Amino acid sequence: MTELLTRAEASKYKETSRHSDVLAFVDELCRRTKLARRVDFGKSGEGQPLVALIVSDRGCFTPELARKQKKIVVMVEANIHAGEVEGKESVLALARDLTLTKLGQKLLDKLCLVLIPNFNPDGNDRISPNNRKLDLANLEGQVNPEGGVGTRYTGEGWNLNRDSMKQEAPETRCLAKLYQEWWPHLFIDCHTTDGSIHAFDLTFDTSHSNEPLFAEMRAFNRVMLERVAKAVKTRHGFDSFWYGNYKEEGNPRSGWHTYPALPRFGSHYRGLLGRLDVLLETYSYIDFPRRCAVMRAWLLELFRDAAKNATAYRAITDIEAEHILARGESPDIQALVGINYGVATRDDKGALVFEYPAHAKPGDVAHIQAFDEASITARRYPGKRRRTYQTPHHRTFVPTHAVSTPEAYLVPAELASRLEGHGIRFERLDAPRRFTVDSYRVARREETFSPDVAANVPPPGQAEVPLSQKPKPVRFETVLTVAPERSTREFPAGTLYVPTAQRTGTLIVYLLEPHSDDGFCRWQFLDGLITVGELYPVHRVVGAVSAPKKAE
Using CA atoms, how far apart are residues 2 and 35, in angstroms rounded to an integer? Predict the structure, then answer.
């Protein structure tokens, strides 16, 4: 029987897999082993199949069997940005090795792997050697395979890693449904990053949203990632550290700064659900084969850690699930949900813009392996001499707005499908009903540009516009200034009653508050229902006469 190879392997890493290659590989692997099964979970914007590869033993290929067999569910998403192809190639090759060799013998009894090798098939097939072309002067791009790579955005122009809250892309909506069905204990998101000059092979991270609220989960996730980083170094020889860039570009002593805590990013979104999450970012400036190798090493060691510590993974996710439900069942005004982390400023034309600063706690120090400062300043990679810098680690976010979790929200019927997209349960009032509510009166309404959320996509074969060239704005956000007020009022039949005592309870708060930096209001889904001087159309339930007792 011929050896089963990815396109990257077969071409000696001169090319990356097209979506047809991915599908052929998945189908052939499933033909060769009883440990893998293909599951289609939807269609891309251009009609290509979205495919997951389920890998486990004992025929464990459904969420129901995974729960019955008490397996840890690990979901891996690769190629969300289709110019960052290392996850795609590594997921396929590792799935083969776990099933056709002895590598997976001690893992698949404890784990059910849900592998999504190519989440952005339309962007993937828009391959060009000029996509993500290396440009160290702008700290942008990567050392590409000769045949080129796909685009950051989908064929319809969506950045899927800014779409978790608004769910405008069909790919996002399909993945959300798959996630809700499997409800994985651990999610791994595979990327490739450019940016500041350093000497790590890969940087990693996890959710930073609402760290005080999810303190136990965030602490567990950090310890786990440090443990896996050591295993990757010991067993595979790769250097890894927390994701970031220099706070002042070119100055390695200025601080090491992570990315914004907005839940439009998938990792922060899943963090609001109380689940374990890992962001993997292999480094653009190392060569393509090494990027694939370090990604494979990290995936393998994460799988090993999940199998070895299955009881602990299950316990911490169960604890956070209980906490989320408790906040809805017994609202506590002191348990605040951070819903906005932006600091507003004005540009030279008076337009509203936002920054999302991370802060360094006292004693939180990053040890950055890099090069001599002259090399960093000159943007030379690799640099002339290796150096290690100790610098403040900016990875703590302080909300500019925070609210408590109410027992429920009253929501206009127009949002029903958007709530359903997030797996949120609700009941429609079958008759008018009076509630005491906390409402918001709209004092001001403005608009701001959404950077790197959507783009005008070039025809297949042409290169996309690099971010350094500041592509034309495509998507905008609504920003409200509001004032709270309490009243008892009647709500009409058909109004949606959304209880927060459900597994999406914290997410509900973030989606529905008017001053959320990533909610339905911010994404302009309520624009037609908002009038300055009137009440915001979503209300926080304080009390009710015979409030609904169940939600569908």
Answer: 19
